[in-house]
Structures are given as C-alpha cells and as structure tokens.
Automatic annotation (TrEMBL):
<keyword id="KW-0238">DNA-binding</keyword>
<dbReference type="InterPro" id="IPR039420">
    <property type="entry name" value="WalR-like"/>
</dbReference>
<dbReference type="Pfam" id="PF00072">
    <property type="entry name" value="Response_reg"/>
</dbReference>
<dbReference type="InterPro" id="IPR001789">
    <property type="entry name" value="Sig_transdc_resp-reg_receiver"/>
</dbReference>
<keyword id="KW-0902">Two-component regulatory system</keyword>
<keyword id="KW-0597">Phosphoprotein</keyword>
<dbReference type="InterPro" id="IPR016032">
    <property type="entry name" value="Sig_transdc_resp-reg_C-effctor"/>
</dbReference>
<feature type="domain" description="Response regulatory">
    <location>
        <begin position="26"/>
        <end position="142"/>
    </location>
</feature>
<keyword id="KW-0805">Transcription regulation</keyword>
<protein>
    <submittedName>
        <fullName>Response regulator</fullName>
    </submittedName>
</protein>
<dbReference type="InterPro" id="IPR000792">
    <property type="entry name" value="Tscrpt_reg_LuxR_C"/>
</dbReference>
<feature type="domain" description="HTH luxR-type">
    <location>
        <begin position="282"/>
        <end position="347"/>
    </location>
</feature>
<feature type="modified residue" description="4-aspartylphosphate">
    <location>
        <position position="75"/>
    </location>
</feature>
<dbReference type="Pfam" id="PF00196">
    <property type="entry name" value="GerE"/>
</dbReference>
<keyword id="KW-0804">Transcription</keyword>
<dbReference type="InterPro" id="IPR036388">
    <property type="entry name" value="WH-like_DNA-bd_sf"/>
</dbReference>
<dbReference type="InterPro" id="IPR011006">
    <property type="entry name" value="CheY-like_superfamily"/>
</dbReference>
C-alpha cells in the first residue's frame, strides 16, 4: 500500500479528489510525536489503509480539508492548537463535519475524556497506543460512517430521480420552518411561486426558509396536539397543500419524517407543478374558442365569479361578461353551470388526471 505523504496533497483538483478510495479507507493521523506517528503509520499501512500524517493543528485542518479522510486519529495535547480545538474546527466546517474523530490521549481524568467527546470525538484511546485496539475501534466507526455515506448517496440519487421526473423535494424542520436541503428544481419552484422568504415567511435575500403557507401546513399536521392521529389517519393519502398561480398549480405532499422526532423533526416534502395551459388550449380547439374565451371558460370551471376572473386575467368584469356571452353562444348553452358541465365533460375525456 502506497502511503500518501504531505507533499502529495498539494492543491488537489477538488476536495477528496487526489486519493483513490476504491480499495482502502483514508486515515489522517495527527500527532506531534514522531514515534507515535511511526507506530501507527506502519501498522495501518500494513493493514491496507491509506495513511496521511500531520504534526500540528494547522496542518491537520489543511490535510482534512484537502483529502477528506474517512477517519481522523487525533492527539489531544499538542503545542499551539491542541486536539480539542482541531476537532471543534473540523466539526464546524460542513465539508469535514461528517468525519469521525478518535482522540488519542495520555490524559485519563474524566473531565479530559468528556472534553474530547464534547469537542466532537466519537471515541478515544489512551496512550501508550496499542495499534490493534486502535484498528478495532476504527473498524466500528468506519462501518458507521460508510453506512451514513451510502445512505446519503442513495438519498441524493432518489432526490435527483424525483427532479428528473418533475417531482421536486425539500426537507423542512417542523419547529422553525428552516429548509434543511432542497433539490435544484425545488429551489426554482419555490422562488417562482414565493420568491425568497425568511423565518416568518416574509421576503428576504436568503432561500433557507419554507414559505409561510408551507410552514403553517406542516405545523398543522405534525405539531398539533392530535398530530399523531392525523398522520395515522392519512397514511393511505398523505396530507397535501396546493398553491395556485394562474393556470399553474404547485402541490406539496408530506412524504416522510427524515430526521429525529425532537421538536417535530425534519420532514421530506415532495412538490410537483401542474400547468393547465394544455387544458385551456384543448378547450379552445374543442369548442372553437379564442384564447381569452378559453381562459374565461377555464376559470368558470374552477368556480370563479366574473370579478375574480377579471382580477386573474387583468380585465374588467364587464369584459369578462362579454367573453362569457360569446362562450355561451358557441357552446349552445345559457348558464354558467351548463357551460362548466360541458367543459368539464370534455376535459375529463381529454385529460383524465385533471383535478378540477
């Protein structure tokens, strides 16, 4: 196994791109004592790991950011930046926060071990280092990290597949409405319908919060006193929310809980945009209506009165009435109800999925 040394890590093309991970896990050892580095380096190298080394805190942060190792073995006590601070900085960076850290320490007092765990360590080993013990502990945490990466990759693939088929997805934290992640299509749709919104649903320069109607809908279904009953009753048909924008409609469906249940948890919401432009066009062709007459008839089918239709189309109620009179004449009917029924029958024939 070839060992990666510091000089081999200069300016890789992208984080994690300089190392081949197909056959081995990458381990970063951070220790200011050469003898400790040598013992672990040789044992890990012989066991098939790719080994990186750093002898001080700044170098450790640089190596980790460049190579994104699978696990870090970190000396707690080093001159300058100690291991606790290194761990805190690694966990504070989104790029390295997922990397498990095992502390190596000669300190056995409870307060130091607690400090190591609070700084972000998942485990610790005491000095003098016993390589077989270190590798046994590494195996446990590498397995967990590997499963987490696999789950994350599968989730990404699923989200990309949803996007490809026109279903956008977001995960929203129920307690405060923060968007934990969103697919590119989801962001595009939310901006199109709501613009950028802040914690209270008001416009802002950041796209980190779900719109107020979505927050209210989510709270109603997962934070209400009877939320468990509502969700249990809706398993066959998950709760939905629809937001209309002219002939376009954006639907939200509560899919599943994606995080722990504290504070209501994080929830995966699947969105889909439906445009009735094709329906309006087919009504125009079927009944020989002008584009504007077909739009008026469409909104009659949707149950809108003339004043509402005028507001939607940017016309006066009187103009809408004239369009509607011509629609009645072309359809051979005398009332809105008859026109709507005839149009709905034709729509059902041509567009069975129409929700009305």
């Amino acid at each position: 196994m070839t060992t990666a040394n510091p000089s081999s890590l200069q300016a890789p093309a992208a984080p994690g791109a300089a190392l081949d991970r197909s056959d081995s896990d990458v381990v970063l050892i951070v220790d200011d004592v050469p003898d400790n580095l040598a013992v672990l380096h040789d044992a890990l190298d012989e066991s098939g790991y790719t080994v990186l080394v750093a002898t001080h805190g700044e170098a450790a942060l640089q190596r980790a950011a460049q190579a994104l190792p699978d696990i870090v073995l970190l000396d707690a006590m080093m001159p300058g930046m100690d291991g606790f601070e290194v761990a805190r900085r690694l966990k504070a960076s989104p790029a390295t926060a997922h990397i498990p850290i095992i502390f190596m320490t000669g300190l056995t007092e409870t307060e130091h071990l607690v400090a190591a765990l609070e700084a972000g360590g998942v485990d610790y080993v005491t000095k003098p280092i016993k390589p077989r013990e270190v590798m046994a502990r590494m195996g446990v945490h590498l397995g967990s990290a590997r499963k987490a990466r696999q789950d994350a990759r599968q989730a990404r693939e699923a989200r990309n597949a949803l996007d490809a088929f026109g279903y956008a997805s977001i995960t929203v934290r129920a307690v405060d409405g923060r968007i934990v992640w969103q697919t590119p299509l989801a962001r595009e749709l939310l901006q199109s319908y709501f613009g950028e919104v802040g914690p209270d649903g008001a416009p802002t320069a950041f796209g980190q919060w779900a719109p107020e109607p979505v927050q209210a809908w989510l709270r109603r279904h997962v934070l209400a006193d009877n939320a468990a009953e509502l969700l249990a009753a809706s398993l066959a048909e998950p709760p939905r929310l629809a937001v209309e924008q002219g002939a376009r409609r954006l639907t939200f469906r509560l899919h599943q809980q994606a995080g722990d249940s504290e504070g209501g948890g994080d929830w995966l919401i699947v969105m889909r945009e439906v445009s009735d432009a094709k329906i309006i066009e087919s009504m125009s062709l079927s009944f020989k209506l002008t584009a504007r007459e077909a739009e008026v008839l469409y909104w009659v089918v949707k149950g809108k009165i003339n004043r509402d239709i005028g507001d939607i189309l940017g016309a006066s109620p009187a103009t809408v009435k004239k369009h509607l009179e011509r629609v009645f004449a072309k359809l051979g009917v005398e009332t809105r109800t008859a026109a709507a029924a005839m149009a709905m029958n034709r729509i059902r024939q041509l567009h069975p999925q129409f929700e009305g």
